[in-house]
């Protein structure tokens, strides 16, 4: 069974130290996402339809809203301790304006790259801090996360030639029917697997709606809706007065057990475990979605 060792969460997004032993379903995040192995067995992530190896010498890089899945190992045996960075584009661009393009779907041209030696030192240091420290100052943590991201992304992203991505971001307009559908999905997390009603509200057949949605977002409506549910659940789990049973209903589940299974399939851990191991660094959690 996979477990979470430590999670820091704040305006920067999340950084998680995870002990993985089971695969995850295909999912997506609005974050700029990087995964680095700390110790244990080599594993892999499914990105762009291919297995991307996660070893001590590699880093898996996933663009915002890019579908992916943790595969673990072919035999299903062993454990892989990894660090997962889920970084908010707004935070990155506040630290360095050119990182506005970190939210572009082509920011990372390749999903797997060699981990620079400097990044290995930084990730090992941050992992050790997460294992032993009772607390860490927010500004120190943010500095370490940013340094690690830059040590990895500066070499393996489109940051050095960002002008074309800037132009693409400005000119990228989503079909207004899909934009309205996305707004409805954010308002109502209870759409489930049946999107016929949403397609009809959009003035499209179900087949045309699915095709246009994928073309605009690179995701199926179900994967997109599940991503919204995960982030909404995480935001509510960070509120100590919210009961997990209430959270499950708020994000569209008829029973807490269904919510717990869904959460584990996407993150590898239960909602209760997430709440136990997360450290909130500031009040930035309400802007997750």
TrEMBL record:
Pfam families hit by this protein: AraC_binding (PF02311), HTH_18 (PF12833)
UniProt superkingdom: Bacteria
Limits of the HTH araC/xylS-type domain: 179-277
Keyword Nucleotidyltransferase found: no
Entry's Gene Ontology molecular function annotations: DNA-binding transcription factor activity; sequence-specific DNA binding
PANTHER family: HTH-TYPE TRANSCRIPTIONAL ACTIVATOR RHAS-RELATED, TRANSCRIPTIONAL REGULATORY PROTEIN
Entry protein name: AraC family transcriptional regulator
Taxonomic lineage from the root: Bacteria, Pseudomonadati, Pseudomonadota, Betaproteobacteria, Burkholderiales
